[in-house]
Amino acid sequence: MKFKKNILCIGAGYVGGPTMAVIAAKCPQYKVTVVDINEKRIREWESENLPIYEPGLDDIVKMARGRNLFFSKEIEKGINEADIIFVSVNTPTKTFGQGAGRAADLQYWERTARQILANSDSGKIIVEKSTLPVRTAEAMEKILNLNQEKIGFEVVSNPEFLSEGTAVKDLEKPDRVLIGSRETEAGIKARKEIVEVYANWVPRERIIESNVWSAELSKLTANAFLAQRISSINSISALCEKTEADIDEVAYAVGTDSRIGNKFLKASVGFGGSCFKKDILNLVYICQNYGLYEVADYWESVVKINEWQEGRFVRNMLAGMFNTVAGKKITVFGFAFKANTGDIRESPAIYVTRGLLEERAMVVISDPKALENAKKDLEDVKEGVSFEKDPYRAAEGSHAIAILTEWDIYRDLDYERILQSMATPAFIFDGRNILDHKKLFKIGFNVFAIGKSPLKHF
Ligand code: NAD
Ligand code: UGA
Hints:
By secondary structure, the chain is an alpha/beta fold. The chain has helices at residues 16-26, 39-45, 57-64, 75-81, 107-118, 136-144, 167-172, 185-198, 212-243, 247-255, 276-289, 293-320, 348-358, 371-377, 391-395, 408-411, 415-421, 437-443; strands spanning 5-10, 30-35, 69-72, 84-87, 124-128, 153-157, 177-181, 207-211, 329-333, 362-366, 385-387, 400-403, 427-430, 446-449. The model has no long low-confidence stretch (mean pLDDT 96). The chain binds nicotinamide-adenine-dinucleotide and uridine-5'-diphosphate-glucuronic acid. The site of uridine-5'-diphosphate-glucuronic acid (UGA) has 20 residues, from helix 9.
């Protein structure tokens, strides 16, 4: 079959894989190839066991794979044949040198730009899919335009707003798709080509066009705003615990104001995920670089409150359990950073587990999808930690349960059965406020939730 255009995606991760699967499924006229330096990942994308878990993803991949969706290790060939290249490589926080701990590490990004340059015989549209510091397109253009043959490259910013656990739904029905470019004739032509791809399934009014810098900065800003709402409600949760106000009631009352809205107001043990912290710290670094120290401090406080909230959760567990957890068995329900994903990057469960281990507790970790990742993350821990998928078995003989991920299965467990198998007094620390606390108290648990007065039998 002759395809209208060849699309290549460099980076077969959480973003590259699902995004390209949806583009391929919705646009049979484009040939979509996804490449990665990680050959194992590519083999997994080609197999029955995809490298990431996302509801609905298996079906979409199966439908398009081999038709117009291909996974490949041949990066150079892919670059050469492509008309449009989405770059979706990772952009982690820099761990060394200037900006360590805050700036984005752009080494993977720059390597990709050079690789594109080295393997292109014809002009291409390069789409920034990764989340990048504002003005990265400028650096990319400078590298790409080093070519002697004067091949024309246009850099377009098309940040991704999907959330893990709902990636397929978010991609199929996005709130908006944002596409930014240079406002030159060539820039606008390139932008329109990307608009044309999305217009196959996204209503035109949901496709926002802007200049390239606005698109880059909007992505960092959106993540900062989302995280800020969580830190805002979490900061108030601490005040609720001191004043007998109830955080869920406060969030409901505040969120019904249509100007505020009710989403992202669920108090929790803290936000996790690979991006919120990294993107805010990147924003902080950029502001500092421009001398905007007050702006930097403002956004940095969002991350600080989150770290404080995670620490507070461990301190509350300790205080609730008579100031010692040494030798006590504590069961962690949920290790993923949120429900419906196996991803544990920056999960609050990591922080809480390590905090409990420092206090010499014996921690049993249970999770329906993230146990393998949890094991890898805790590989360095010599003793005190074990893993058990079955929540009933995991809770046997334990002094306390800590709910750290809002998986539905934890709502529906038989807690009377669990209580009977536990040591007494038995505690539940609900870090996600998903359980019926009054009911649990009635059957005999001591219940500590976020932003609520504890329910204790002593
Ligand atoms: P990821 O680590 O899951 O995937 C990145 C992939 O890029 C890896 O498989 C890696 O091997 C590959 N890679 C790195 N350098 C390469 C190179 N030179 N050539 C070929 N492949 C290379 O990361 P991710 O979660 O998909 O995130 C990618 C970007 O998208 C980041 O900038 C992130 O901030 C952004 N983002 C992520 C999410 C999310 O939910 N995870 C959502 C929106 C935006
Ligand atoms: C987030 C954004 O929601 C996406 O729009 C963005 O594309 C993505 O980051 C990214 O750039 O990587 P994600 O991290 O997958 O998506 O998940 P979220 O649903 O945003 O949850 C992040 C964390 O906040 C989770 O730990 C979640 O449990 C927590 N959270 C979320 C709360 O504690 N309370 C809430 O009300 C909402």
